[in-house]
Amino acid sequence: MPKDTSIRSVLIIGSGPIIIGQACEFDYSGSQAALSLKEEGIEVSIINSNPATIMTDKVIGDHVYLWPLTVDSIEQILIERKIDAVLPTMGGQTALNLCKEAEERGVWEKYGVRVIGVDVAAIEKTENREAFRQLMIDIGVGVAPSKIANSFLEGKEAAQEIGYPLVIRPSYTLGGSGGGFVHKKEEFDHALQRGLEASPTHEVLVEKAVIGWKEYELELLRDSNDNVIIICSIENFDPMGIHTGDSITVAPAMTLSDRCYQDMRNQAIKMMRAIGTFAGGCNVQFSVNPDNDDIIAIEINPRVSRSSALASKATGYPIAKIASKLAIGYNLDEIENQITKTTSAYFEPTLDYVIVKVPRWNFDKFKGANMELGLQMKSVGEVMSIGRTFIEALQKACQSLEIGRAGLGADGKHNRSIEEIMHGLEHPSWNRLFLIKDAMTMGVPLESIRKVTKIDKWFLSQIQELVHLEVELKRYSLNNIPKDFFFTLKQKGFSDIQIAYLLGNVTEDEVYDRRKSLGIKRVYKMVDTCAAEFAAQTPYYYSTFEEENESIPTDKKKVVVLGSGPNRIGQGIEFDYSCVHGLLAAKESGFEAIMINCNPETVSTDFNMADKLYFEPVFWEHVREIIELENPVGVIVQLGGQTALKMAEKLHENGIKIIGTSYNDMDVAEDRGRFSDLLKELEIPYPRYGVAENAEEAIIVAQEVGYPVLVRPSYVLGGQGMSIVINDEDLEKAVVKLLGDLPGNRVLIDHFLDRAEETESDSICDGEDVHIIGLMEHIEPAGIHSGDSSAVLPPFSLSEKVMNDMETYSKKIAKALNVIGLLNIQFAVKDEKVYVIEANPRASRTVPFIAKAYDVPYINIAAKVMLGVNKLKDFTIERKLKGYAIKEPVFSFDKFPEVVKELGPEMKSTGEAIRFIKDLEDPYFRKLVKDKSMYLSK
């Protein structure tokens, strides 16, 4: 059936601010869906309150509403604009819940809006635990024994009937919120109460726990002719008991028998057909008994999910793009295959490579948090890697995580305490993967590890092979490693740093030079979805060690954009937004735009966003060899946050051109000591400071500058390691801990301006002119990280003198640092005097907020300035903000109820929302100021 021509305008509901359990995978899905619908000539409106995402950019939607995600907001859009249909499946649980609420209030019917991509009834069937359980029983799909409970008494009766261990699953929640395991009777009352409170309908499912069973996921698509295809099978490395968002996952499934897979596939199709007649995507989760292959259904989500983004990047099959076309009436065989361009979308991808996803946690930001993993998701991001084998992909994933690991072990960061290792295996946390390797290195038998972890033996044997290879490598020196063995090590994912560590007294560069002399170098393979059965057109590559290279460089002028890696607190989706605009600006300026990134959730790693995508770790060895192959005119590092900036020194040392601000000038700003010296030369006020390399020096400096002092390391993002101390004893503890966590770093000791107000500026400099993008005033006082503060644009209570000083200092610093591109500066204001706290010559979390508030494509402008194709005078910049815009941080403290929710110099927010107000009498603003215990006027 061709598309439904009665659908001329569609509203896409976004997912709102980034929180744990609902991250930028929905920004990716929503963006892809919007572009897909626009291809069909459909007018696309988007509602989303997240300013940091590309989804809320004019390049994605025809009409973007940066409004609160409420039914009232939706109704206002429907009054303002003629909307034919709403697509709620791209915005996660937030969008589905909002769609359901609007249906219950009669909004869709009132304005003649059709819900496409899902049946509202299907949302109820899948989110209501009892309805889902009964439906599965009716269609003959296995489920764990369970009972629904709407009260404390019903829950107690259910537990008594089913027996322990149990799992509590609240209805209508996201990321496992409020859920958990109950192993014994004494724990039940508290767990039940928490679950009932977490559910908006005060309803939980009390279910028999199948801890230790294997967990799998299938991604499905269905069209209006009831054709269903399986896009991808995903296997959890971790067994049941750990939320799938916190599990290491592998695609395709590695240990699934063909009989069991076919059975699972048939059940998934039956489940999708049973929940409704809609056309679109679905994610189904199953559990399999490792002893007899019995299958039970865990849940079904009638929307794109975190796994949908992973499956899209894993297979090259753009699930959200195709799902949106199915939603407007197309059938699968009527849609062009985006990869081959010659076949239809009615096919199931075939992989001749292996995908591994590893989550990224930020427990360091939540002191005292319960770090044990369970039913409630706690990770803040993830990385994906591609290899020819599981173990190669796993090592590459470890290199991608941005936690200072060179691979899976063999980097000097192993744990040698057998007690800590065995405890960590039994009580899984962020580091269990590394502890498995440590246990094997110390001789713990594989079977003992399997019994404790319940991880499939096949995965463990793969890791054990690394241990055997390391033992063999230590028999050699660098110059006598046999070429075949060296080649094997690289095929198993060993980085040059790991090999150097295992050999001892050898550098990474020496290992690199030796393998190059042996002719061992990376080749690049295309992600083609059909295992080369058909010719593929996609410029989407991963590296491995074989003979044939499929990535053939062109003779065009090229620019490499380094991505930001996994989302984490302090470095979020705003940097991916910046990278996407960097790619677009490079393409618009006539360059071939090349992306290097490893985050499966983001738009920058969509296969059609760059001219060429390398889905690789943003890790020096990988970046180096891509640059050697492609020979770009330069590399953009100032859009990818600290991940990309950390690469600047290596690029500089190797004579690779950095586009925009030079490495040395960026280093002046990053090195807190050098930067303060620069401010002194420029006669710009700054807090008294000193630099120390140990605790003794720090105490001397603190006594000179005066307590209270702000203690912080150089070269960090998100306030990592910052603290405010008031005496020598606390200072000594802070410095010792900081240098232990960040060895080799110098410590900056600033006099802390107590009760000062904090402000910010963002600007663009082209080497001659400086354009102030925006000045912002924080509602919270100095001492609370800027990422955790509510920022108001333009300032609401600063004097003209203060704002003039902020502009003057911004321009002086931009010129002194020879900035080409972006510059963010943070100030403290006390008694009408403006002090500079820090400057960052790179993209910031506030530039997307300002760009959305003023409706100006500032990142695009900055990228073209960096590329040298435009000067600031070439642009006509018109700001459209009437009133004020407020950037308000959003936290995920509900995932860590045991943590004190106190804010300070180290950032803890996971996302942000934008709110527009007409004047300072707005009730939202007044309440915000009151809640922060702040004053409105001086």
From TrEMBL:
Keyword Ligase: yes
SUPFAM superfamilies per the UniProt record, alphabetical: Carbamoyl phosphate synthetase, large subunit connection domain, Glutathione synthetase ATP-binding domain-like, PreATP-grasp domain
UniProt entry keywords in alphabetical sequence: ATP-binding, Ligase, Nucleotide-binding, Repeat
Top-rank taxon: Bacteria
EC number(s) on file: 6.3.4.16
Molecular-function GO terms, alphabetical: carbamoyl-phosphate synthase (glutamine-hydrolyzing) activity
Residue ranges constituting the ATP-grasp domain according to the UniProt record: 133-328, 676-867
Keyword Repeat set for record: yes
One Pfam family here: CPSase_L_D1
Catalytic activity: hydrogencarbonate + NH4(+) + 2 ATP = carbamoyl phosphate + 2 ADP + phosphate + 2 H(+)
InterPro entries: ATP-grasp (IPR011761), ATP_grasp_subdomain_1 (IPR013815), CarbamoylP_synth_lsu_oligo_sf (IPR036897), CPAse_ATP-bd (IPR005479), CPSase_dom (IPR005483), CPSase_lsu (IPR006275), CPSase_lsu_oligo (IPR005480), CPSase_preATP-grasp (IPR058047)
Class of this enzyme: ligase
Gene3D superfamilies: 3.40.50.20, ATP-grasp fold, A domain, ATP-grasp fold, B domain, Carbamoyl-phosphate synthetase, large subunit oligomerisation domain
Family, as annotated: Belongs to the CarB family.
Protein name: carbamoyl-phosphate synthase (ammonia)
Protein's organism: Pedobacter gandavensis
Species classification: Bacteria, Pseudomonadati, Bacteroidota, Sphingobacteriia, Sphingobacteriales
